[in-house]
Amino acid sequence: MKYRLLSRLQLPDDLKKLTLKQEEELCAEIRRKIIETVAKNGGHLSSNLGAVELTVALHRVFESPKDKIVFDVGHQSYAHKLLTGRFGSFHTLRKYGGISGFTRPSESEHDACVSGHSSNSISVALGMAEAMRLSGDSHHAVAVIGDGALTGGLAFEGLNNAGHSGSNIIVVLNYNEMSISKNIGGIATYLSELRTQYSYKKLKSGAKKVLGAIPVVGTGIKSLISASKDGLKENLLHSTMFEDFGFEFIGPVDGHNLEKLEAAFRSAKEMNCPVLVQVNTVKGKGYQPAEDMPGEYHGVTGFDIETGEKPPVSASFSDRFGVELARLAAVDERIVAITAAMKYGVGLNHFTGALRDRLYDVGIAEEHAVSFAAGLAAMGKIPVFSVYSSFLQRSYDELIHDISIPELHAVIAICNAGIVGEDGETHQGLFDIPFLTTIPNVTIYSPSTFEELKICLNRAIYKDRELVCVRFPKGSEQPSGIPAADGYSFTDRLSDTLIVSYGRTSRAAYEAAEEVGCSFLKLTRVYPLQEEAVELIKKHPRVFVFEECSRAGSIGEKIRLYAPWADCTAIDGYVPGMSVRQALELYGLTAEKIAEKVRSAP
What whole-number distance in Å separates Cα of residue 129 and Cα of residue 119? Predict the structure, then answer.
């Protein structure tokens, strides 16, 4: 049988009954199931393959759900799902109505929290550990965090609070030298050096024994020996950074050796105090293409298992943005680019050669990225921070405090704006417009084609002032034949009905307007609304606005300030994981749905 253990065991309870050989067989089955499913459905591959033994060992030693296992980001939780009763539904991974690609408490009692974004696991786990302590519950909370997520400032806020808490919190640091892009910076260097130490705990224990064996002969040399011991302690027993935070430290541990992992986790559990266990793993373990190119197989839409070949991908907005920004930067040394550990995902891989020194990867630290951009802008540079819409949410305060109030000129390139698909609620880019439009003097563009993207980026860098945002969707352009513009385009069909849209949705809205025979207004500069565009809207007694945006704070709401009769179709609540096409259909944003609504409206 292909899945002899996964299909028969009652997991996670039966896991504790297995022999080491059976555990290893189970790990092989888990890897096989992950590879087969992600090849068909897409998802996160490298991170999950690297965390298989780690996850098995956690479930062997701890008792979920009484012990709380908090996965940072959650993009490494596929093995956890297979070990907690979801083998039968695993084929629905990332499908509409199926299981999520991240942890969701609504899906299983073994999923301790909602996950999707990075660096929060230590804080969440500490809250759970403290709640259990206050209730007299001796169970543990375990935060599983990668070295990439450790570059986020929130992780250090959690460490700072947790280390001296006295609670039963265990932090498992999964070190694999990667987030999405290669990790850089001081933390990466520190962890790399720590990784090379063989059994830190053994070294420290051995050094203590040596020091304890030094004889003290005579009072005359007592102080000298004491001083020597202090010097030896400094050299042999110098604590790790984590011990300085107040944690007991265990590691580094081979993250693919089940016996060593279980021994380390049992030791941590028995201490009943804050403990950090460093586990060294190989991202993509067990599938050679993913091991060789962990970044390229971090998140995939699918692939051929035998060859590792992935389906061809059309040119994306992010890629075209990166090409254009690199072109501008090549002739203007004031332009600098910033990414938060996502160079490839946001198109900044084109900053090579002479431009390399003007590309800053700050790690998973969006708040720092914005404040860093403010410093660059204050000194006459033109910073361009390229970031996913859902991750820009972390930077709201810095956008106000460090960019807007001092009236500095910085450009935010917002990738993956609007609906993004299978990654679900935590990744949909629905909130950038609502929160950005609360910031005074912000300008927001939403190009619908590559040509408009170039026009908007040039305006944002050279024409506009203060905070300027250029937002664009995930994937490629869908030209509609509407002339490119940096403000708005109006198609007059001498109708009393007007459809208004912007960004990706504008193509479907334009097609619907053609079918219905009404006028169409495509906004490229979506905020602030231009006076001429507002006057066009006010002239039409029937106005329909369609947008991939949260309804609260949407552009439709702004339009209703001038035309209260406008009917606005936007998105209420959170969009679960499903394909982009399914989501657009569900929320009434396809050409067919738009035309149907306009026709049926009174």
Answer: 17
Q: How confident is the model at residue 380 (pLDDT cuts 50, 70, 90)?
A: very high
Order of strands, sheet of 382-388, starting from the edge strand that comes earlier in the sequence: 359-361, 335-339, 382-388, 410-415, 467-471, 443-445, 525-527
Any idea which residue has 């690199």 for tokens? 326
Q: What angle separates helix 258-271 from helix 52-61, to the nearest 10 degrees?
A: 40
CA 217 to chain centre: 60
Cβ partners under 8 Å of residue 123, min gap 6: 154, 157, 158, 161
Q: How far apart are CA 388 and CA 214, in angstroms?
A: 58
Could you tell me the domains of the chain? 13-201+239-284 (3.40.50.970), 317-471 (3.40.50.970), 488-600 (3.40.50.920)
- DSSP calls for 8-61: T--TTGGGGG--HHHHHHHHHHHHHHHHHHHHHH-EE-HHHHHTHHHHHHHHHH
Provide the annotated active-site residues. Answer: 283, 366, 394
DSSP assignment string, 77-140: -HHHHHTTT-TTTGGGTTSTTS--SS--TTT-TT--S---SSS-HHHHHHHHHHHHHHTT----
Give which of 439, 279, 415, 432 is closest to 338, Cα–Cα.
415
> pTM, whole model, 2 decimals?
0.90
**pLDDT tens-place string over residues 338-360:** 999 999 999 999 999 999 999 99
Encoding tokens for residue 560? 């209703």
| Percent of the chain whose predicted confidence (pLDDT) is above 90 | 86
Biggest CA–CA distance in the chain, Å, is 107
CA dihedral 35, 387, 439, 442 (to 10 degrees): -130
